[in-house]
Design a protein that fits this description.
The structure is a homodimer.
Chain A lengths: L4 E2 L9 H9 L19 H18 L5 E6 L2 H13 L5 E6 L2 H10 L4 E6 L1 E4 L2 E4 L14 E3 L2 E2 L4 E2 L10 E4 L16 E5 L10 E6 L16 H6 L9 H16 L2 H22 L3 E2 L11 E6 L5 H10 L2 E2 L10 E4 L6 H18 L3
Parallel strand pairs in A: 1-15, 3-4, 3-7, 7-10, 10-11
Antiparallel strand pairs in A: 2-12, 5-6, 8-9, 11-12, 13-14, 14-16
Helix pairs in contact in A: 1-6, 2-6, 3-4, 7-9
């Protein structure tokens, strides 16, 4: 049987080494005769799991001391509401950069709580989807913060430059966190649902600069309060302990292979190999401008869309699974998050060559 | 080595049969060569997991057709905010029965959103902690709903009768759901964090009567909207898929042993055996009136509190773990949720006899 390479956009595959450890200690964790999910979140054993995960995440991302790391529930969509409620302060306006589906969804939710200045960053360059330069974004003076989503998973579009502003920059990094080096100090808030590069669905990371903790509205649900979650070490209520533990294993794994520097190198290799195949083979195309191509989500179309089903079926037979594109875009999408090994992309590229050869007219 | 019997108040032990299945298929679920946590929540395979879990829960609790079952994130504490935001409608008042710590916590959160009529139900009878009769609770005419918590986990106090009202009754059943038969049709909303009788921490059940779906405020975070979650089959955003899957395994297990009728019988046997030991042995006492004793959480004190540490240590050596009482109460607490087998309680009772014999003065 071929190894399985899982290109799911999320919930995504987790590192095989992590899953092997988790399976082994599933019912007898830490020699305690039970699972880590069966112990109190307030036990010293679990608190060590939680603190270790935070320490490793801080080390991996070089999180400065004046930033808090929170482990939350509710996914990035809960943060779409939490952000304005936590950050508006006395302002009634926030600026949102619209680069695609997820940025737009964040805007819709923010509109419940404030006036949203929308900067439409979507454009086309040479007939390809692209985003406008951040230097052209005119941010309103009275906006409390500037929100953007650096990577749109559905379209496979990345925004590579930061908003130019002295206001807190808020970034939805659900699909990019830990995939490359970032300078955390440039951000007010970074948040990320776990189910792509961190762990299983059900836990959400929030990294927030500590001067932003005192701005929340009174009507904020307690479970969404950054200040309260920070004061309670993300245990204001029972956290999703098993997801936290698995995320911690992922952080350890990432450190063991060389940290974010190494994974960024691998991620750039993987993306380069895949885009090269798409560009070299006339049988495939990607509609995103080269400057905005995503390192994490690579959508591509076949020259003969009537063969989409056959492509997916034969790919799956080779262990290349979850390649079907988002229904809004069609075609294929290869999500190549941290857990995807370079061999998986190599196997996909080989398959793409073979399939193209069989089905090209020439 | 003794078998481990886990008396944790939550996150609690899960049925051993469930954990064995989950471990076996951890990295190769459904013959797919990957974990159920590594597939899309929108895949047909996961949708079947989700729907099967709902079907089985409905069957176990005889949920009427006019009730919606939602699988949410954020724990019961997120519901503390979600309830008033979803249910107040044009009213600005809700009635909350205060029977202890958790009911009180729900009141504090509700106060952010409305005027709360508090009915203090805490009392003492014959020197024991008890609750007043529901027939004496005078519920304000303009309250939108009546909230209570049938079981207080910290004090081990149960409220056995329902509020007498024609308003929607809202019950925090985090620690009692599926432990006994209930008549769902008597409630407007039943909600429960999973980590006691349902599954791992990180997923929350909400069972809501469908006529209550249209009352929400506009300022409600989308992830807390019952109407939206219902419309999207609890997949408005990525749900905690692994917790959902494990909960589904627990529901299957419960059906396999005879459903709620059978587990209620076992739970009553377990509680009876434990309270009998406490009452028979002068070395132990429980401070709750017999009419209010919890079926799920049994706190007890030693006659010699200076031996608490030794009791816990020797119990742990016998595989009887997580018996330490909540810090607010001290002493011991045996949480005997559905997953605790009768043998576990028998082993605890035997140990309590032995320990009392060694350390009684007589």
């Amino acid at each position: 049987m071929n190894p399985i390479y899982n290109f799911s956009a999320g919930p995504a595959g987790l590192p095989k080494a992590v899953m092997a450890v988790a399976q082994k200690e599933f019912i007898n964790w830490n020699c305690m005769g039970r699972s880590v999910m069966e112990i109190s979140h307030r036990s010293k054993e679990f608190i060590e799991v939680a603190q270790c995960a935070e320490r490793n995440l801080r080390e991996l991302l070089n999180v400065p001391d004046n930033y808090k790391v929170l482990f939350c529930q509710g996914g990035a969509r809960a943060q779409f509401a939490a952000l304005p409620m936590n950050l508006l302060g006395k302002s009634s306006k926030a600026c949102y950069v619209d680069g695609g589906y997820w940025a737009h969804s964040a805007i819709e939710e923010a509109r419940k709580y404030c006036t949203v200045q929308v900067i439409d960053a979507k454009t086309t360059v040479d007939g390809k989807a692209a985003t406008t330069a951040a230097s052209t974004w005119q941010i309103d003076e009275d906006a409390a913060y500037v929100h953007y989503c650096p990577n749109e998973t559905i379209d496979g579009i990345e925004i590579n430059d930061l908003p130019v502003t002295d206001k807190p920059i808020v970034a939805d990094m659900s699909s990019t966190i830990l995939s490359r080096q970032i300078d955390v100090s440039k951000f007010g808030v970074i948040y990320a649902g776990a189910q792509k590069n961190v762990g299983p669905a059900g836990i959400t990371l929030v990294i927030v600069r500590d001067d932003l903790l005192d701005l929340a509205t009174d009507a904020l649900p307690s479970t969404l309060s950054y200040k309260l979650l920070d004061a309670k070490d993300s245990m204001y209520n029972t956290p999703p302990t098993y997801a936290w533990y698995l995320s911690g294993l992922v952080f350890k794994w990432l450190k063991s292979i060389g940290g974010v520097v190494e994974i960024e190198k691998r991620n750039r290799n993987k993306a380069a190999a895949l885009y090269q195949a798409i560009d070299e083979l006339p049988f495939y195309k990607n509609d995103v401008h080269v400057d905005n191509r995503s390192l994490m989500n690579v959508p591509f179309q076949l020259a003969k869309p009537e063969l989409d089903g056959l492509f997916l079926q034969q790919a799956e037979e080779k262990g290349l699974v979850a390649l079907k594109g988002h229904r809004a875009v069609g075609g294929m999408r290869a999500s190549i998050y941290n857990a995807m090994p370079e061999e998986g992309v190599a196997a996909l590229v080989q398959f793409m060559h073979d399939f193209a050869e069989q089905h090209s007219d020439s």
